[in-house]
Amino acid sequence: MCQRNITANILNRQIRENQVLGFQRHYHVTDPFIKRLGLEAELQGHSGCVNCLEWNERGDLLASGSDDQHAIVWDPLRHKKLITMHTGHTANIFSVKFLPHSGDRILVTGAADTKVHVHDVTVKETIHMFSDHTNRVKRIATAPMWPNTFWSAAEDGVIRQYDLRESSKRSEVLIDLTEYCGQLVEAKCVAVNPRDNNYLAVGANGPFVRLYDIRMIHNHRKSLSQTAEVQTLCDKQKAIPDGAGQYYVAGHLPVKLPDYNNRLRVLVATYVTFSPDGTELLVNMGGEQVYLFDLTFKQRPYTILLPKKCHSGSEMQNGKTTNGVSNGIHLAANCLRVSQHQSSSSDLSPNLEHIKQQANEAFARQQWTQAIQLYSLGIHTAGQNNAMLYGNRAAAYMKRKWDGDHYDALRDCLKALSLNPAHLKAHFRLARCLFELKYVAEALECLDDFKGKFPEQAHSSACSALDKDIKAALFSKNDSAEEKKSSSSIRFHNFSHREAIPEDEIILRERSFDYKHRYCGHCNTTTDIKEANFFGSKGQYIVSGSDDGSFFIWEKETTNLVRVLQGDESIVNCLQPHPSYCFLATSGIDPVVRLWNPRPETEMENGRVVEDMDGASQANQRRMNADPLEVMLLNMGYRITGLSGSNDASDDEEENNEGQMQCRTS
User: Fold this and answer.
1) What stretch of H or E contains 257?
2) Which of 62, 140, 392, 591 could bond 97 through an S-S bridge, CB–CB 3.0 to 4.6 Å?
3) What burial class does residue 11 get, using C-beta atoms within 10 Å of its C-beta: 0-12 exposed, 13-18 middle, 19+ buried?
């Protein structure tokens, strides 16, 4: 009887502890906590830049790797250094990972010396050394369900798989990007889906992010090895079997790539990671913004295969449609009546009406980012079914003109037109967006379609001005295309010339899926290891480091920026959230690891908070588009005012000036 009571008590206690833990994990990152996030401690121990951080599964240990070629295991809760060991690497360490289910005993490191080392930290010994890569190893990935297996991504363009149960002490090639992307391709990051370990994401130079089915690739490589003697040349080119790869890309980037090359901007995925539930993929795109891809509800880019002929809405219903809107430009003439799903201004709740009014006032003050954030809040609150809010946000994007804004505006215009095909301003703005995205012929078709549907607007000053701009661009299109072709960066020739890559790769790129959300404000042009991560048990927030020494926190669903903190004297590269607490570890150029948590409500001073988030974001946008001399001046703290580009009136609204961008003082 006594024994049964003791057992029952133990079981009840375990149930209560699990319930508390579940509650804690579910609510450990909330908006009030984010607003009070501040610096708790600085962990001193490295003598070089700290390039990588990794929590163990329980969150009571933190590992770090550095340019000093040492790995340190910390007790972050007590701010203590537990283990310091030289890893045997002869160059900068870029990645460090605890091997799952190893009792936190096995640590894997990858470095610029092209080596992958496996360490037993309890005895401070390197137990395996792999030398199969031929260029810098940038990332290591592990899988929760595969305790003896891990992967590496290196700048030789190869993803390798390791199994510590094998006696050969060699790795095998899982994916060789050079087989279908050319010799200049470099793999920069790799991650395994935490919920389905059969899927692996790879980021490389260029705008495309790749998702692979490991099982299919293994079977394919096995079959190739068995039939190597009778392979044809065509078989050898087919490095990835049909259905084993899926590509993701921000829809405007393939089109903008020549422009970025001409401005010496390198597009490269510096970090990829999956959401906690494995349904989303987050990508920090170097030279651009942070993107979230939905792996369940996929959508095609609107500009990757824009048709050049008129398509009605009904014709595209069974074709290439996404999110209920067509990839085509033209809308059926018989669809001019307002959709039954459209919510007019009078349908807005008092709360939504207040949000809309605030957004309109911010727009009138030329505070484009504030207007965008308020419209985004309204769209999220309205359940994404209000055409007016989408149309207004598109106008704000077009005024702000940050990288990717015109493409987001195009998406908003198409969404507004799907909700209300009679939305005049959305239709006109769509033509303007196509022109700004250099789809000149499509822009002219869209504008002609607009004139036919809204003849009273055909001779307006805005319509005439756009018509003039489009025809002038068409006249000089061939010359400018030749100039861009001759001056494009050789580094990305494989991404801009169709003949340089196999047909299978071209098809995969053309079948890419578009992003769901975009996060702006940070700058990622200086380093190629900059991370972006989900923060919270359900990934409610997105965090990313920045070249200005700050790190940025956004709400995932609204994409609104909610917090900016100064995390490094130079650059924040790494951000790793604790698995179960509102606790964040960051590192960068400084030789320290910084720990962040919600500060007490009585602690009024927080010197690390960047109060002017809009100003910091504008400065970073200018930094991303600056030439090397300007970047040097920005890093020295100089203020640079003015922004190139004209303000084109997109409709009959009052034309506003964009104002000046200023760097906050360093």
Assistant:
1) helix 253-262
2) 140
3) exposed
The answer for residues whose C-beta is within 8 angstroms of residue 107's C-beta and 6 or more apart is 63, 71, 73, 96, 97, 98, 99, 118, 119, 121
| Domain-located, residue 14 | yes
Using the structure block, give the residue that is written with the tokens 């604790």: 578
Query: Residue 648 is encoded by which pair of tokens?
Result: 């084109």
pTM for this one? 0.85
Question: Looking at residues 416-427, what average pLDDT do you find?
Answer: 94
Mean pLDDT of 597-619: 88
Confidence of residue 226 (pLDDT cuts 50, 70, 90): low
Cβ–Cβ < 8 Å for 626, 547 = no
Residue 440, token pair as written in the block: 């000149």
Specify burial of residue 604 (Cβ count, 10 A radius: 0-12, 13-18, 19+): exposed
Residue 107 backbone dihedrals phi, psi, to 5 degrees: -125, 135
Residue 539 CA to residue 122 CA, distance in Å, equals: 33
Domain count, the chain: 2
3-state helix, strand, coil in the chain (%, to 5): 35, 25, 40
> Cα separation of 149 and 270, whole Å?
23
CA 357/CA 371 separation, integer angstroms: 10
Question: 442, 475, 508 — which closes off a domain?
Answer: 475
268-274, strands of its sheet edge to edge = 268-274, 280-286, 290-294, 517-519
Residue 466 counted as domain residue:
yes
| Run of H or E including 390 | helix 387-400
Please give the Cα distance from 437 to 415 (Å, whole number): 18
Residue 535 within a domain: no
Q: Please report which helix (H) or strand (E) contains residue 85, including its range.
A: strand 80-86
For the chain, the straight-line distance linking the first and the last C-alpha, in angstroms and rounded, comes to: 70
Query: Which of 61-75, 294-308, 388-402, 498-512 bottoms out in mean pLDDT, i.e. has the lowest?
Result: 294-308
- Whole-number Cα distances in Å, 33 to 560, 584, 612: 16, 12, 20
CATH of the domain at 384: 1.25.40.10
Tokens at 329, concatenated: 């430009």
548-605 residue pLDDT tens: 999 999 999 999 999 999 999 999 999 999 999 999 999 999 999 999 999 887 776 7
Q: Enumerate residues 6+ apart whose C-beta is below 8 A from 129.
A: 88, 115, 116, 117, 118
Q: To which H or E segment does residue 233 belong? A: helix 233-237
Residue 335: count other Cβ atoms within 10 Å of its Cβ.
17
Structural domain harbouring 24? 1-28
Report the candidate in 324, 326, 325, 327 with the shortest Cα–Cα distance to residue 305. 327
CB atoms near residue 193 (< 10 Å): 22
Q: Is residue 561 part of a domain?
A: no
Are 239 and 179 in contact by the 8 Å Cβ rule? The answer is yes
CA distance 454 to 448: 10
* Confidence (pLDDT) at 602: 74
Q: Give the pLDDT confidence score for residue 303 in this predicted structure.
A: 64
Residue 42: pLDDT above 70? yes
Q: From 200, 119, 202, 124, select the one nearest 164 (Cα to Cα).
A: 119
Query: Among the three residues 475, 497, 512, which one is the final residue of a domain in this structure?
Result: 475
Give phi and psi for 347, each to the nearest 5. -85, -10
* Strands laid side by side in the 209-213 sheet: 187-192, 199-204, 209-213, 245-248
pLDDT band for position 28 (cuts 50, 70, 90): confident
Q: Which one, of 544, 574, 308, 337, lies nearest residue 441 by Cα?
A: 308
**CA dist., res. 199 & res. 272, Å (int):** 13
